[in-house]
Structures are given as structure tokens and as C-alpha cells.
Amino acid sequence: MKILKVNGMRCGHCKAAVEEAAAKIPGVSNPVVDLDAKELRYEESAPVDETALRQAIFDIGFDPQ
């Protein structure tokens, strides 16, 4: 399991938006946001372009660390 810190998430809508954006990145499977920890957790079904993942999250208004 991979973990990415994401700042700016506060509600269920934020959670769903980040999970949806992450799911569109090739290789990301089972993305789940933990709002309390401010983390996106996901499995890799293939190598993930982490720059693309961070950019996708940034593009919807959040701050991936």
C-alpha cells in the first residue's frame, strides 16, 4: 500500500473527489482517503506515475505532499 499526504480535504465531497481523481491514474487501484489522517491510500496494479497523480490531485484544488 502506498500513502500520499493530501492537505485541504475536509468533507465527504473532498474525499470522493480525490478518490475519483486518483482512480483515473493508470496503475492506481482501490484509492481510499482517510480524512482524519489527511491521506490517500492506494494499491499499485502497475507502476504509477506519481507526478501525474500529484498533478491530478492539485488540479482539483488540493495540496498533495
From TrEMBL:
<dbReference type="Pfam" id="PF00403">
    <property type="entry name" value="HMA"/>
</dbReference>
<dbReference type="InterPro" id="IPR036163">
    <property type="entry name" value="HMA_dom_sf"/>
</dbReference>
<dbReference type="GO" id="GO:0046872">
    <property type="term" value="F:metal ion binding"/>
</dbReference>
<dbReference type="InterPro" id="IPR006121">
    <property type="entry name" value="HMA_dom"/>
</dbReference>
<feature type="domain" description="HMA">
    <location>
        <begin position="1"/>
        <end position="65"/>
    </location>
</feature>
<protein>
    <submittedName>
        <fullName>Heavy-metal-associated domain-containing protein</fullName>
    </submittedName>
</protein>
